[in-house]
Design a protein that fits this description.
The longest helix is centred in the C-terminal third of the chain and has 10 residues, at about 410-415. This protein has a single domain, classed as Porin (Beta Barrel). It has helices at about 25-35, 40-45, 150-160, 175-180, 410-415, 450-455, and strands at about 20-25, 75-90, 100-115, 120-145, 185-190, 195-200, 210-235, 235-270, 275-310, 315-320, 325-340, 345-355, 360-365, 370-380, 385-390, 400, 420-430, 435-445, 460-465, 470-485, 490-505, 520-535. With about 550 residues, the chain is mainly β. The protein has six helices and 22 strands. The chain is elongated.
Length: about 550
């Protein structure tokens, strides 16, 4: 059963009540919106982005704004990227790789220089503006679960705490709880000691068998427009400040389906006199469809310094404030259930369907603050070696309602289950000829997620009716490139291999209810980028 083409609405993550799986936001969503990758000019990428102490490149305007002070002449440059991507499911047999390719416009910028003479205390003052891609959201894959050991319906049932006997949104239930209840994926089976109702899903242990799949398609971008001012003091100290304006758009369409036999469900039918009758459900083929679109703008500030320790040795430091985003999310969720129940006559096939309203939610996101430091050494006029370290304060991210009130539970999850991440960047350049240089680089970023979430030892909340989530394990990038300098122009080329390892879950485990999640799936996304930059000095 595949009804993706049937549903074209946008979608909602309602601010849910205390019950069930759905919340207005989630820490996993905040992490997704604040994530960045290594994009920029060919020289910048080929040297692993290790430019905190180097500067002098259009992409450094988005990294260390002091890099603008290193420019000795005005310059304009633009970058194109041929991006080839593959995603493989590493630890679940029966899944094939997904491949895609596209042409991206990653970077364009201009720097203007006002020179005051080599003997002046302030040798030059520079102004610059640049566009730089920070993130390209692009994944499209299907995960096939040949044999299920549980069900999303049981996870939903296990999260129905403080729930009434009949779940409705008006009674404070979350939308995913309501959809599951209305379509006979869950049912109430009695009351707990304090009066709350207990719910169960379709999966009945060893007597239930089944398979499933998750389709996920995402697209979007986070583009930054930077405006920088900086200068050069006595050719020894370079300074810069920058304003960044981010334009973010993220869209995801997902479709999760389970086909179950030997279930423990129950359907309710009403006779002509209005009397309810309950019949056992023996099989179910149900799907959950979601669309989610988040779009908005953000602003951040950057400040940095680059200084010469000796004529060959430089050091640099930069601080990025959080990006303060104002975002609007549009979303929708739908459940369709084709099931078989048994009445007094025999087996009967039936169908049910319900959906959330299409709605918008406005919220605010404060992304992590970043601090980076770097050092580089120039071996005469032939070679450069550069190393950077970057600290990202993920645990200090926060989400707010439109009026400024915090999302308390989600911000607590950020503190408890996210980790501050660390990035190491290494780059080298060697001048083969006065005009020709060869370059290489490496970048490593540690996971921003706690072991508790990665290992499913605690429940991982998601937003609204979207049960699946992705957690970053680590990122690595290897790069190499060439550069050729003409009298007033240059052309640079780079090849980058970037590998992101992620855990993908169709739905979370609920450990305190002894309900397992879908099998941990290791999705390895490999990006092979061919990057060309052309620049002119004037």
């Amino acid at each position: 059963m595949n009804k993706i083409l049937k549903y074209i609405s946008f979608a909602l993550l309602f601010a849910a009540g205390s019950t069930g799986i759905g919340r207005a936001q989630s820490a996993t969503e905040a992490l997704r919106m604040s994530d960045t990758d290594l994009f920029g000019s060919a020289r910048f990428v080929s040297m692993g982005g290790a430019f905190t102490s180097l500067g002098g490149d259009i992409s450094s305007l988005s990294q260390n704004p002091a890099g603008i002070g290193v420019f000795r002449s005005s310059e304009v440059a633009a970058t194109m990227n041929i991006a080839i991507q593959s995603t493989q499911i590493d630890n679940l047999p029966g899944n094939s790789d997904i491949h895609s390719s596209r042409v991206l416009f990653d970077n364009i910028g201009i720097v203007g220089t006002m020179r005051f003479g080599e003997n002046a205390t302030v040798a030059n003052i520079n102004f610059g503006a640049a566009y730089n891609r920070r993130q390209h959201f692009s994944q499209n894959y299907r995960i096939n679960y040949a044999a299920l050991n549980g069900s999303l319906s049981n996870a939903i049932a296990g999260l129905c705490t403080d729930a009434p006997a009949n779940l409705t949104y008006s009674s404070g239930a979350a939308w995913l709880d309501v959809l599951a209840y209305d379509n006979f994926l869950t049912r109430s089976i009695g009351q707990a000691g304090r009066g709350d109702w207990i719910y169960e899903g379709l999966y009945a242990g060893g007597q239930t068998s089944g398979s499933g799949f998750l389709d996920m398609q995402e697209k979007g971008y986070d583009n930054e427009y930077t405006f920088n001012f900086g200068g050069n003091i006595a050719n020894r100290l370079f300074f810069g400040i920058g304003l960044g304006i981010d334009d973010l758009k993220y869209q995801v369409v997902s479709y999760y389906e389970e086909t179950l036999a030997g279930t423990q469900g129950e359907t309710e039918l009403t006779d002509d006199d209005g009397n309810p009758h309950f019949y056992p459900i023996s099989a179910s083929d149900y799907s959950l469809y979601n669309e989610l679109s988040t779009r908005g703008t953000g602003v951040n500030f950057k400040v940095g310094l680059i200084g010469y320790i000796t004529d060959s040795w430089r050091v640099g430091i930069a601080v990025h404030t959080p990006t303060y985003f104002s975002l609007t999310r549009t979303a929708y969720g739908d459940i369709v259930n084709d099931y078989i129940y048994t009445d007094e006559v025999g087996e009967v096939s039936a169908n049910s369907e319900s959906n959330t309203p299409v709605s918008e939610t406005d919220f605010r996101l404060r992304t992590p603050m970043k601090v980076m430091a770097g050092t580089s050494y120039m071996f005469g006029t032939k070679a450069i070696l550069s190393v950077d370290y970057e600290f990202t304060a993920n645990k200090r991210m926060k989400m707010f309602e439109r009026d400024g009130f915090e999302y308390t539970y989600d911000n607590q999850d950020i503190k408890d289950y996210l980790k501050n991440s660390h990035t190491i960047r290494v780059g080298a350049e060697y001048r083969i000829l006065p005009q020709l240089s060869v370059r290489a680089g490496y970048t490593l970023t540690t996971t921003p997620v706690s072991d508790a979430w990665l290992d499913n030892t605690v429940y991982v909340p998601t937003a609204g009716t979207l049960p699946h989530y992705t957690l970053n394990r680590s990122k690595q990038a290897y790069s190499a490139g060439l550069g050729y300098r003409f009298k007033r122009a240059y052309i640079d080329a780079a090849y980058q291999h970037r590998c992101n390892k992620n855990e993908v879950m169709a739905y979370s485990a609920v450990p305190d209810k002894q309900i397992s999640g879908a099998k941990n799936v290791r999705a390895i996304t490999k990006n092979n980028n061919i990057i060309i930059t052309f620049g002119v000095k004037f």
